[in-house]
Amino acid sequence: MNQTLIPMLKRLRLSGMNESLEVRLHEASSTGLTHLEFFELILQDEIRVREDRQINRRIKQAGFRDVRRLEDFDFSFNTGIKKNVVYDLATGQFIRERRDVLWLGPPGTGKSHLCQAIGLSLIRAGMTVYYRSIFDVVRDFLHDEAMDGHERILKRYLEPDLLIIDDMGMKQLPKRSGEYLFEVIMRRHDVRSTMMTSNRPLEDWGKLIGDVPSATAILDRFLHHSELIQITGRSYRMGNPAKSSNSTKAQTGPASEEK
After folding, report:
1. Cα 26 to the chain's mean position, in Å?
2. Distance between CA atoms of 46 and 26, rounded to whole angstroms?
3. Up-side HSE of residue 194: CA atoms within 13 Å toward CB?
4. Is residue 254, in this structure, part of any structural domain at all?
5. Span 22-39, mean pLDDT?
6. What is the span of the domain harbouring residue 33?
7. Which of 21, 110, 164, 252 has the fewest Cβ atoms nearer than 10 Å?
8. Do 140 and 26 reside in the same domain of the chain?
9. pTM above the 0.85 mark?
């Protein structure tokens, strides 16, 4: 019977059923499952495989720099980060309320790790996420403007349930960066949620963007309905001797990103 069923399952693209068929048939014969119980089990197998596949596809589409998990974050290293606040964000309630989130703090204190880990949790909950560094944002728009693809790239930034823009403040941005960033923030305002991280205080944004009016307009929209999370404390990398030692030895490797 298996030789008859397997080609049909493949033809129907029921890979979950196909993978578990042998085990479920053995279970049915050894435990006396009813037809209905057997059918329910193989349907559950198919649903599980499809959900896993969809999650993996959304993780890939999110474009995370690193796939981080909340359970891997060391909250004991920096007790100033409130675990309950982070896990509240991971529930996605701020997305349902169309609120934004801004993380402020020095490099290495965990902003990038937490943003990406929250993004991963939200993907697992069925939401869509898109992650970009601020440099990626500017590069995307500069490139696609030259290629006459502004609307196409803008759509990619406007559609996700959560847009994460990381690394604001690492260095001064190219000309017209404020225009691109303002358009994204303005178009998402009160429609979709955006999460940003910054290593510099808000009063420095005008200098970073090179456009004080644009920076003021961005912050006016972004802070209107947002949660501001200030992180202080030591750098995780500088405070971890073993990791610092390994990084020093790995002279040929790429520079480490913010945790």
Report:
1. 41
2. 17
3. 28
4. no
5. 89
6. 2-61
7. 252
8. no
9. no
